TrEMBL record:
SUPFAM superfamilies: Histone H3 K4-specific methyltransferase SET7/9 N-terminal domain. GO terms for cellular component: motile cilium; nucleus. Residues 1-13 have a biased composition (Basic and acidic residues). GO terms for biological process: axoneme assembly; meiotic cell cycle; spermatid development. Residues 1-27, 168-211 are annotated as: Disordered. The gene is Rsph1. It is found in: Cytoplasm, Cytoskeleton, Flagellum axoneme. This is Radial spoke head 1 homolog. The keyword Metal-binding does not apply. It comes from the Eukaryota. Its main location: cytoplasm. Functions as part of axonemal radial spoke complexes that play an important part in the motility of sperm and cilia. It comes from Probosciger aterrimus (Palm cockatoo).
Length: 211
């Protein structure tokens, strides 16, 4: 069903409301028979999209409300989350940053609602990857991540004024070859090497005061 403006050819053109055969509804702008411009699309499953369209596809700025209570606000390209946006998950966690072809990809910040801690750094195809900082209430970890886990050299910086340097090592379990699912690797283990005072930055040419 369609109720709204049409052009001389009889195509949906201008503002209109439509009910699709699958039960979804659309209220917004059309151009030459296609959803184009600002509109609200309501899915039968309870999801809805409020934003801009380009030739029937979500494109530009828009907010998508998912049936589980999560939502995405940000850029869309060709029906995909793409560009910059914020996703609020059903459990209250949030991700704010770059998106590429529907995935968290680039630089972004993920905030864990339960603990208040946050991950600030790189993402690749939805996973935490590359240089990053994991910030807790009274300390932070700076290092590299691989596939969502810290790996390699890094340091913990404590608010009380010291740093613990070390590295995360992926240890292989003995007899792992016999396991049916070798993909379930053990958690990387932290091996501390030294503890130092905070490495403070000093302006060039100035000597820091004696301890």
């Amino acid at each position: 069903e369609y109720e709204g403006e049409r052009n001389a050819k009889g195509e949906r053109h201008g503002h209109g409301k439509a009910r699709l055969p699958n039960g979804d509804t659309y209220d917004g702008e059309y151009e030459h028979g296609l959803r184009n411009g600002q509109g609200t699309y309501r899915f039968k499953n309870g999801a809805r999209y409020i934003g801009t369209y380009l030739r029937n596809k979500k494109h530009g700025q828009g907010t998508f409300f998912y049936p589980d209570g999560s939502k995405y606000e940000g850029d869309w390209v060709d029906d995909q989350r793409h560009g910059h946006g914020q996703y609020t998950y059903a459990n209250g966690d949030t991700y704010t940053g770059e998106w590429f072809n529907h995935y968290r990809h680039g630089q972004g910040t993920y905030v864990y609602k339960d603990t208040g801690s946050k991950y600030v750094g790189g993402w690749v195809h939805g996973n935490q990857e590359g240089e990053a900082e994991l910030i807790y209430l009274n300390h932070r970890f700076k290092g590299r991540f691989s596939n969502g886990k810290p790996l390699g050299r890094g340091k913990y910086v404590f608010d009380i004024g010291c740093e613990q340097h070390g590295e995360y090592i992926q240890e292989q379990d003995k007899g792992e070859e016999e396991e049916e699912e070798p993909s379930l690797l053990p958690e990387p283990k932290w091996k501390a090497s030294k503890i130092t005072e905070l490495t403070l930055w000093t302006p060039h040419g100035e000597t820091p005061p004696p301890p």
